[in-house]
Amino acid sequence: MDVMCHSVEVETPTTDPQPMLWSGWGDPAKAVDLPGPVRDLLGKLLGVRAPETPAADLAEVRPPAPALPPPVLDELRAVVGPAHVRCDDEARVRHARGRSTPDLMRLRAGDASGAPDAVLLPGSHDEVLALLRICAERRVAVVPFGGGTSVVGGLTAREEARARFTGLVALDLTRLNRLVAVDTESMTAELEPGLRGPQAEELLARHGLTLGHFPQSFEYATLGGFAAARSSGQASAGYGRFDDLVVGMTVATPRGTLELGRAPKSAAGPDLRQVILGSEGAFGVITSLRLRVRPAPQTRLYEGWRFASFTEGTAALRRLAQDGPLPTVLRLSDETETMVGLAGPEGIGGSASGGGCLVVAGYEGAAEEVPLRRERAAGVLAGLGGTPLGAGPGESWAHGRYSAPYLRDCLLAAGATVETLETAAFWSGLPRLYDAVRLALHGALGSPLVMCHISHVYATGASLYFTVVTAQSGDPLAQWEAAKHAANEAIVAAGGTISHHHGVGRDHRAAYAAEIGELGAEILRGIKERLDPQGVLNPGVLIP
């Protein structure tokens, strides 16, 4: 990227990324077991029963025979070197799917039908560009792959590849993992897209800086994935969404290179950065990001508040979002999520919080500024009916903020279907959206446990993040597909967006078409045709 930066010697993280559990979430060493009493409770409340068939072992799973012609494979090897083209079963299975509940159900059943023919690991922008040109010429489908954390079906192109292309490859960006430059005058840094969240924070911490982007997927998702899916971190109230952080980028496409972002803001036509942000690898592959950075906080303070109802808590969050002062982290769990204890690190079956709804407020920043902002925000919360709970609930949330996906794994193993979905709306439409999604899920699933929280707030509206737990039916994939379809229809009908931060993928494509209309879909198809005429980039994702 041709920018004026205070260059640093190119830096790489001290640790290599460890692979996730192949059929679950995160570090296998952090996997948790569901306590016996909680299993009994799920059985009594929801009718959950242990599955009859145990989950498959990785060594037992066989991906489909590769379809990629050997001469094409040789061309790809010539670009990145033989050591950086993986064709073994394990590498292919690990790149077969994302981490949605349907993805995990298929993997746990030993279904690796979505596996690519090969995994390519480029080490530079030029190598990515060369690989895309070969794949376009040879009609090979390409799935850009970061941390593998998509929960909307964003990493499975096998069905489209089988029908339309000569093969399928995963383009793993792990080797693009460098901090290239730091501009402390402009407070920006240039980083490569294969860096996972903790690696990026490690590199920036050496310079006293942070991105402040901490989504639940933080430990495994990558910077490129954050940009491609318009990620929003748990501290978005203070630091902004990831798309707010992107001031420039370099993108490789089958047609050539895009260099985007000459200034923080511009009136030189539509901002093409916004075309790539949220495009989920369908238009190009991000190979470099210039990001806004902040000084690393000197002080962090988290605390809990209780409101009598979700309605009262929502009104309090709206007041802070519109009038300030705004905490760095601000989230509100509804009555059910608060009662169940999912807002705390213990997860389902955790300590009771005394009823009502839990608010977590967190403050990060300069040592002299944080207490003042906290005091002013506390005055607002108390004035609107909030009861202070002290630091305990906030610190507990901060300690366990990345643990919920591990809980999902043990619930799946126990015979429960558990999944999340999220949306957003303007404040005036939020109650209708909340009721509509809950009603749709209950209608599709009978008597599930449906929990919700607000975790991202704006002056004009907020997000709703739902967690659903129900007993698995005889066909749990069809069961969830029906529930997801009902929820998507409810979101569209109630005026919400089909995704606030998970993206479109394949799971939301039909609802996205309804959201943007036919003319909007035609615009996307036109961009796709111009940047990727052969349609090799992540086919089946995003484009209606």
Automatic annotation (TrEMBL):
Superkingdom per UniProt: Bacteria
Similarity section: Belongs to the FAD-binding oxidoreductase/transferase type 4 family.
Keywords attached to this entry: FAD, Flavoprotein
A Pfam family recorded for this sequence: FAD-oxidase_C
PANTHER family per record: ALKYLDIHYDROXYACETONEPHOSPHATE SYNTHASE, PEROXISOMAL
UniProt domain FAD-binding PCMH-type: residue ranges: 112-296
Name this polypeptide is given: FAD-binding oxidoreductase
InterPro entries from the UniProt entry: Alkyl-DHAP_Synthase (IPR025650), FAD-bd_oxidored_4_C (IPR004113), FAD-bd_PCMH (IPR016166), FAD-bd_PCMH-like_sf (IPR036318), FAD-bd_PCMH_sub2 (IPR016169), FAD-linked_Oxase-like_C (IPR016164), Oxid_FAD_bind_N (IPR006094), Vanillyl_alc_oxidase_C-sub2 (IPR016171)
Transmembrane domains' residue ranges: none
SUPFAM superfamilies: FAD-binding/transporter-associated domain-like, FAD-linked oxidases, C-terminal domain
